[in-house]
Amino acid sequence: MDFKLIGSILLIIGTTIGAGMLALPIATAHLGFYGSLILLFVCWMIMTAGAFLLLEVNLWVPTNSNLNTMARQTIGPLGQIISWLSFLLLLYSLLSAYIGGGSVLFHDLIAKIGIDVYQSVASILFTLLFGSVVFMGMSSVDYVNRGLMFIKFSAYFLLIFLLFAAVSKVNLAAGDIKNVTSTTAIMVTITSFGYAAIVPSVRIYLQGDVKKLKQAIMIGSLIPLVCYIAWDFAIMGVLPLKGEHGLDAVFASSRSTSELVQALTIAASSSTIALLARLFTSICVLTSFLGVALCLCDFWADALQIEKKGLNNLFISCLTFSPPLVVVLFVPGIFVKALE
What we know:
Blueprint: H1 3-16, H2 19-27, H3 32-58, H4 67-112, H5 119-135, H6 138-164, H7 169-172, H8 183-191, H9 199-205, H10 210-238, H11 247-252, H12 256-268, H13 271-304, H14 310-330, H15 335-339
Helix pairs in contact: 1-6, 1-10, 1-13, 2-8, 2-13, 3-8, 3-10, 4-5, 4-13, 4-14, 5-13, 5-14, 6-13, 12-13, 13-14
């Protein structure tokens, strides 16, 4: 059994099935389930094609190269600047979303065990605690991600099984497929398949084995597609579009992740669902956070042409985590906005 290949597939799945998944039924609620289904398939095809193209270009350059080197050697200095700005804007926006969503869940979790801190303190603790896993390197991220993925899938399948019994055809039929062109719906759905940035890091881990890399991308993207379809079916079928605890109200909240859990708890009237939903949403944010943070660290190492060792690694970590943390501290409730 090739544990590195399995680990790579799980890393792609973990990066993909993350905080974006929580926002999917919220952002696409106005499309209805069938509209969201069409959007999921289209975005999956586009983003998978993009991942394979990115892999092809990455295989043209030295093993430890990231987007910076790829851009410089293929589209020149101007293209390199544009790619820098685009990549940093994307990854910093994602990290802002994950720290924002994750710290809210983290705050609620420690409050339940009797530790009451300010939300800003919870954001800092969340970043320090899980940023340290990324600081320790790819192997550390892989092993932690494997454990989190096992818990996440266990919670996911149990949650889906329990929610399916409460699905309403009326709720599924809500929304209008004409809203498929909604900017929010498109951006959040595309972001939900935004794993391609981790391809250069996976190439390093699999030592450039092209066959395994292709397998990792295909399997690692197909599994999230199936999971997203089942997730949208369950959430849109259980929660109404309108009402006090409907998807519209969740979307408008500054605490979308917590509000989604609360709405599911009320709709399903089950403490088990509440526990599973809180566990699943928390780990979704964590696995995405780890994958995207690893991408950004590798990007900075390539861009600055320094190794991730000693003080250099500390400097790269500061560059990676400080900007999104500052954004979260000064712009609370940024979760869905940052994903959009």
